[in-house]
Design brief:
Length: about 270
């Protein structure tokens, strides 16, 4: 639901980074196929079904890895380093989960961003065209910049979130409520998104021309040619807003699920004793 809500903002960011925003035609990197002919407000919803479905799959994979890693760190690292802050545990678990989740996220993102930029009509056409021209490897175009972006992005996001929650608890002497989890999550997401925009720009350029198997260097030169260092921060505003909203919903649900599971565990323990 959150992905569907922020999809227009995400599409604006992708089109700005790909050079297709506000244009009926395609940029030089989108000249692989003819324009789709979809314009106006409707163009901001390109790939929304695939994005919503893909977000669910990617978040599920991320949650599974993050939860497992956190438990392992709590069991094996905390006893040895008793003064380790919660932010450090979250930073490490977030980085590991981002690295593992990239194997699921990248193929989905390659297809979805190509549709958002107007390179292909829909996700199915994108996947078929990319694999026919570049093989299965084409679906992993931009994997390196994704990894370089997501690892610090998720690590900083979780570290910032856990640190702010700990600070809140010290000041208020109580746990955060759902509204506070939402606001802390929004701030954490916006900060991490703004800081990693240059890598997101590179990733978008590579993914939107996946069929031609572009390199990291070619993507960097293309962005630099469009406006120097400033061009690497194209779309930072929409990215910070969309990521902030998405992260706020993400953490609100995460905390709600955690509280529900803790409550069920306590009930089971009480019943067995």
């Amino acid at each position: 639901a959150s992905q569907s809500t922020i999809h227009p903002l995400d599409t604006m960011k992708v089109q700005m980074q790909a050079g297709t925003f506000g244009s009926a035609g395609l940029s030089k990197i989108g000249s692989l196929v003819p324009p789709t002919g979809i314009g106006g407000v409707a163009s901001l919803y390109r790939g929304v079904v695939g994005a919503a479905s893909g977000a669910g799959i990617a978040i599920g994979a991320y949650f599974a890895i993050y939860s497992s890693t956190t438990k392992l760190l709590d069991l094996h690292v905390k006893p040895r380093f008793k003064n380790i802050p919660p932010g450090a545990i979250a930073f490490t678990a977030g980085a590991i989960a981002a690295a593992g989740g990239s194997f699921v996220k990248v193929p989905l993102a390659v297809c979805i961003r190509s549709v958002q930029a107007g390179v292909y009509k829909n996700v199915a056409v994108a996947a078929k065209s990319i694999t026919s021209r570049a093989g299965a490897r084409g679906l992993f175009t931009g994997f390196l910049p994704t990894l370089l972006e997501d690892v610090p992005d998720m690590a900083v996001k979780f570290a910032c979130y856990e640190s702010l929650k700990q600070f809140h608890s010290k000041v208020t002497k109580r746990r955060t409520n759902t509204e506070e989890d939402f606001m802390i999550g929004m701030f954490s997401g916006a900060v991490s998104a703004g800081a990693t925009t240059p890598l997101d720009c590179i990733k978008t350029r590579m993914m939107c021309s996946a069929a031609s198997s572009p390199s990291l260097q070619v993507a960097c030169r293309s962005i630099w040619a469009d406006g120097g260092a400033r061009a690497f921060f194209t779309g930072m505003g929409p990215r910070a807003v969309s990521n902030g909203i998405n992260t706020a919903v993400f953490f609100a649900f995460y905390e709600a699920i955690q509280k529900m599971m803790n409550k069920q565990n306590k009930q089971l323990e009480a019943a067995s004793s």
